[in-house]
Amino acid sequence: MITLVFTSLLAGFLALFLYQRMTYPFFWVDLIYYLKLRRYGKTLRARMQQGIITYLDCFLHQAKKNPNKPFIIFENQSLTYQDVDRRSNQFANAFRTEGSLKQGDIVAVLMCNEPDFICVWLGLCKLGCEVAFLNVNIKAKSLLHCFHSCGAKTLVVGADLVRLVEEVLPDLKNDNMAVWVVDHSSSSEGFNSLLDKVERMSGENLSDLPKVDIMSNFLFIFTSGTTGATCVLKKKFSASQFWKDCVKYNVTVVQYIGELCRYLVNQPMVPEERAHSVRLAAGSGLRSDVWKEFVKRFGRIKIREGYGLTEASIGFLNYTDEVGPIGRASYFNKLSMSFELLRYDTQTYEPVRTDCGRCLRAQIGEPGILVAPLTAMNQFLGYAGNKVQSEKKLVRDVFKVGDVYFNTGDLLLHDHRDFLYFRDRIGDTFRWKGENVSTTEVSEVLGHLDFIQEVNVYGVTVPGYEGRVGMAAIVFKQDHKLNGPKLYSHLVKTLPAYAWPWFLRIQTSLDVTETFKQQKVKLVHQGFNPEITQDPLYFLDISQKDYILLTVSVYQDIVSGKIKL
Question: Shortest CA distance to 300 belongs to which of 286, 279, 321, 322?
């Protein structure tokens, strides 16, 4: 009798196991990940009961615990936690003594990858200053916009970026901006040298670190940044040196954007690409075909593709070995983080609403706008100095009167296996070369040319490339025509290369919606194929510094990869 019962139980467990494997194959993986998040959340809440723990607190804790551990490895330099702590103290004392900076002051930092970038940042944090990181690729007008947005009255600029600031120095002086260059001297009038002051300062710990609360501003971000333990920095990414550096510095974890991985798989083979110690690659934007090639070619490296936002506390992580998704949307995931995918109008990209004014959820397998409810734990504090744009990111009365959701502006797809896939970025931005491009900004820049009457900027896909490359539909002023060299010269002076429109479409008038918004959907769909449209198309030929007619032959060379973008 006992044997029969045992056999029946065993058969039942086996049947249940097979059913789970067939119906819910990721059940245990999802459950384990959920339990880990619960444990991390419990630890975080316990720490928060002890008071606010800032990034600076974490750094100082590590500096005290592991003073001699390497913190930053840069070229031939290796700086320990203690080295960075002391040098950041020197910067803090210099800024306080020579620059009269104090808690609450907003300081913009325009520096490339170098150890002093971290030291400047931590030094300002020790004074309680609010730091705004500026993108080193932006040009003069965009630079001024960033200053006005964040309200900075002090700028710290790297020695190799002084020329960029010189272009807007008169405007900065009109705004009473104090400009410090991270160098021992300054050859330009209007710049204050910093390093000569820093090296005279004490490196001892500051006795009066600022007190902060949960609503204190810590950082203004205009572009992505990274944090870590020991961090290996390079001034610029080098695909040819990447694996050699990984071997040289015994790197175990790398961060990527999708474009970076494509550069690596397109490089000639080198011995170091299989001799490294890298075990994990984490990032976002990795295309499936590149993903497969990356894992196949470079060894047993776990890929952890994710999705996250600076503005709101919502993010996903693909903690499985499935190729392609950005995360999971299982029952357990929704317990830890609430989100919705909304149906949208393909013409306006606005959420579709019922006759009662409520939004509709996207169906399984249907792309939808990712939105997240605003709660006490998931807040949206808005964009600095721009209440109008902040309000545009909110969707109200979504499923009931009074509820408020944050609109990510991204289209995601939830498949029948509960995987989430990134599909597109909507609105007035697109992503190219790992950077976000504002169509509004590019349109404004092009509109300054005397031969252009109207312009509509959008992004189009190109085979073999992640994201979308810039394209512009243009209407000329009467009795004017395209001046390619002038346009190219204007772009070089005003925009970073990733924001340039590589393709032009010449039109007699621009398509607009009923509310007079520029119509992009049809243009995006038709792309830059000369066999689809009768409108003249042009392509940016860097070698000629001019836009050339886009023929079928040139088109084929681009899509085949013979011509590189």
Answer: 279
Residue partners of 51: CB distance under 8 A and separation at least 6: none
Give dist(CA 248, CA 144) in Å, integer: 40
Give helix 115-127 / helix 81-98 axis angle, nearest 10°. 60
Which residues, listed in sequence order, are joined to residue 460 by a DSSP beta bridge? 469
Tokens of 419: 């995987």
Q: Which fold has domain 55-221?
A: Rossmann fold (3.40.50)
pTM: 0.70
- Does domain 326-426 sit in CATH 2.30.38.10? yes
DSSP state of 11: H
Nearest Cα to 319, choosing from 35, 20, 10, 23? Answer: 35
Start and end residues for every CATH 3.40.50.12780 domain found in the chain: 55-221
113, exposed or middle or buried, with CB in 10 Å at 0-12, 13-18, 19+? middle
Q: Where in the chain is the domain with CATH 3.30.300.30?
A: 429-560
Residue 369: strand, helix, or coil: strand
Q: What is the DSSP letter of 353?
A: B
For residue range 38-86, what is the model confidence (pLDDT) as tens digits?
888 888 777 767 777 788 888 999 999 999 999 999 988 899 999 999 9
pLDDT at 273 over 60: yes
Q: Regarding the domain delimited by 237-308, which CATH topology (the fold level of the hierarchy) does it fall under?
A: Rossmann fold (3.40.50)
Tokens for 449, please give them.
Answer: 């040319």
Angstrom distance (rounded) from CA 180 to CA 277:
40
Question: Which numeric CATH code is attached to 429-560?
Answer: 3.30.300.30
CA angle, residues 388, 394, 399, in degrees to nearest 5: 150
Tokens of 68: 């001699």
If you write DSSP's letter for every residue of 406-436 in order, what string do you get?
A: EEEEEEEEE-TTSEEEEEEE-SSEEEETTEE
pLDDT of residue 476: 93
Which pair of tokens denotes residue 349? Answer: 């990209």
CA distances for 205 relative to 120, 194, 211, 551, angstroms: 15, 20, 16, 65
CATH code 2.30.38.10 region(s) in the chain? 326-426
Q: Which two tokens stand for residue 157?
A: 């600029």
Two structure tokens written together for 272: 């170091």
Cβ within 8 Å of residue 176, ≥6 positions away: 153
Per the CB < 8 A criterion, the answer to whether 523 and 517 are in contact is no
